[in-house]
User: Which sequence fits this backbone?
């Protein structure tokens, strides 16, 4: 077992995994837990993961699976928001505010829809890859994404308008 | 801008603003070492049953060689059991004579196990599943060997068909008479090391009773079904002094330390 190779992997890929987790999760603390937990598992199986064609893809899949498992475990307690929240118009010069606004918009989605959207539009997964990761059919993936886009259209457009208006001033 | 482009752009913009986690490499290694130590400590013992996995619906059948039962699970990988068909594997294989099952065996988890080492880019790996079941809080587990390493007994835990990373492996040797696995609770909070655990114990064929002791002296008989018992562990691992004791018709035949207790 090479700690060095695992450390190198985490140094190189950890920030990307953290970004993905932050988009999948409701808050930063949950995202950090998800990343730490996933990497702890990856360390335990690093010998075999390292031997795969793409360790990063493998660990990403672990992260997504773990995320899905978590929300399945807590689905009774984790309710998606039934109404669209007020979307604060982000200041385009304030990247953190923009990130918060986008995550706020994503929070209106049920976890599985959010995961499907993140995998499709952030991780560039295919329908088949998303179906594999989420344990559902490709048809379900397409319908989930379709519903998600319908829900996101208005609030995301608001952030776009806000951004444009502020940029003009 | 259409909504798909907008979503894509916003996600990438938001992601760029996510700060890295401080000291992530060091903390990941530290937590990983702890988890690995826990899994390595998992005690492997004997073997039990002949639940072979192959194509078809879930059913009990008999092969032509005698009374051995096999479970056929849909969407599962092909069977690869040393004692399936030709005899002559390791001696302990022949001791497996009865189905060992506590609760349902999740065929999706079996399928996940067949891809555990190789991901989805290759065909499912042939497995031989010896025991399986469902924990009291609803996760599923299987105990199996895989064709790429038939000398390794492996355990895998899942939830709703997904592998949830409860996995360990240990060399299977002929004189082992029992095996145990520490399954992560799925009912509690997900702060990994603050959860309770389920200690799953599988005894050799003929096991009539399994006991567990927190302190090594006060024994608690566990409900034992088909040589399988599950103990509740109210913390992330059994206490250091904890012990497992297994009986057959002649009395106690084995006593040992549960997985995780000596780490």
Assistant:
């Amino acid at each position: 077992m090479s700690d060095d190779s695992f450390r190198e992997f985490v140094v190189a890929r950890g920030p990307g995994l953290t970004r993905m987790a932050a988009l999948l999760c409701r808050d930063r603390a949950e995202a950090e837990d998800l990343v730490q937990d996933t990497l702890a598992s990856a360390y335990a199986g690093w010998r075999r993961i390292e031997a795969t064609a793409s360790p990063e893809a493998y660990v990403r899949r672990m992260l997504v699976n773990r995320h899905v498992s978590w929300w399945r475990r807590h689905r009774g307690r984790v309710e998606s928001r039934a109404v669209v929240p007020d979307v604060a118009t982000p200041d385009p010069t304030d990247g953190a505010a923009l990130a918060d606004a986008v995550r706020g918009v994503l929070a209106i989605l049920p976890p599985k829809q959010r995961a499907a959207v993140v995998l499709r539009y952030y991780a560039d997964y295919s329908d088949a890859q998303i179906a594999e990761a989420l344990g559902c059919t490709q048809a379900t993936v397409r319908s989930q994404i379709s519903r998600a886009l319908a829900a996101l259209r208005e609030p995301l457009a608001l952030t776009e308008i806000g951004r444009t208006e502020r940029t003009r001033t | 801008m259409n909504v798909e482009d907008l979503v894509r752009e916003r996600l990438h913009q938001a992601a760029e603003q996510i700060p890295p986690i401080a000291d992530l490499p060091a903390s990941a290694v530290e937590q990983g070492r702890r988890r690995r130590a826990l899994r390595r400590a998992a005690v492997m013992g004997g073997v039990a049953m002949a639940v072979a996995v192959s194509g078809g619906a879930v059913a009990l059948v008999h092969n032509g060689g005698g009374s051995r039962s096999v479970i056929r699970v849909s969407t599962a990988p092909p069977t690869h059991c040393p004692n399936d068909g030709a005899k002559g594997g390791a001696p302990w294989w022949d001791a497996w004579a009865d189905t060992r099952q506590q609760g349902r065996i999740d065929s999706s988890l079996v399928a996940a196990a067949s891809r555990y080492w190789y991901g989805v880019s290759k065909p499912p790996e042939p497995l031989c599943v010896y025991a399986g079941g469902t924990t009291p809080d609803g996760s599923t587990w299987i105990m199996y060997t895989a064709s790429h390493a038939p000398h390794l007994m492996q355990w895998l835990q899942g939830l709703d068909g997904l592998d949830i990373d409860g996995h360990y492996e240990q060399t299977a040797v002929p004189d082992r008479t029992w095996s145990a696995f520490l399954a992560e609770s799925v009912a509690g909070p997900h702060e990994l090391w603050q959860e309770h655990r389920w200690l799953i114990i599988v005894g050799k064929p003929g096991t009539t009773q399994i006991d567990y002791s927190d302190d090594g002296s006060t024994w608690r008989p566990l409900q034992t079904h088909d040589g399988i018992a599950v103990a509740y562990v109210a913390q992330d691992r059994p206490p250091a002094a904890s012990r497992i004791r297994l009986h057959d018709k002649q009395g106690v035949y084995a006593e040992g330390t549960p997985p995780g207790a000596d780490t």
About this structure: The longest helix of chain B spans residues 24-40. The longest strand of chain B covers residues 149-159. Confidence is low (pLDDT under 50) at residues 39-75, 85-94, 188-194 of chain B. The radius of gyration of chain B is 20 Å.
